[in-house]
Specification:
The chain has 177 residues and is an alpha+beta fold. The protein is built from 4 helices and 6 strands; from the N terminus they run αααββαββββ.
Length: 177
């Protein structure tokens, strides 16, 4: 009986060993590479050079003053978008280029001879496509005496590579004397 138990024990050990070896030999381990989920690249945001934009807007305002002082309505109208809106103090809004042009033609006739206006861009903000400008104006008579000052906000939009005024609002600090 002891022999039979020894043989049984040997057979069991051999069987378990064969079973273990066959299981361990047949088991394939495939390591999967653990990868981090792809993180989308942050968009590159290029901030416009606002000092350069301010210089460009000031150049437009300098041209605006020159056209106003020359009473050149056509040159002024080239600075407006077709869908511009102009809002002055004590008057209804002027919508569209035709309404703005009519108002400019009438106001040019009323301006005293020799008077000049200048504009100073004091601040700009926005981006390289839409810029809001804050500025001041000074009107002088033919002798150079300041007759009025004012302030304005203008919104410019770049269309076909050129800034055009799409909205403006302005008012006087002091009425002309």
């Amino acid at each position: 009986k002891i022999m039979k138990n020894k043989n049984f024990l040997k057979m069991t050990l051999v069987g378990l060993t064969v079973l273990f070896l066959s299981v361990s030999c047949n088991t394939t381990t495939t390591e999967k590479a653990v990868t981090e989920p792809a993180v989308p690249a942050e968009p590159v945001i290029v901030k416009p050079d606002m000092a350069a934009v301010k210089t460009e807007i000031q150049a437009i305002e300098t041209a605006w003053a020159a056209a106003t002082n020359a009473r050149d309505v056509d040159a002024l109208m080239a600075l407006y978008a077709d869908d511009a809106v102009s809002m002055s103090n004590n008057a209804p809004s002027l919508v569209g280029k035709a309404a703005i042009q009519k108002d400019l033609e009438e106001s040019m006739k009323k301006r005293p001879g020799g008077s000049t206006i200048s504009f100073e861009t004091t601040e700009v903000f926005g981006d390289d496509q839409v810029v809001t400008e804050i500025g001041t104006s000074v009107t002088k008579d033919a002798t150079g005496k300041v007759t009025s000052t004012g302030k304005y906000i203008a919104i410019f939009e770049k269309r076909d590579g050129k800034y055009l005024c799409i909205r403006e609002i302005y008012n006087d600090d002091v009425k002309e004397k």
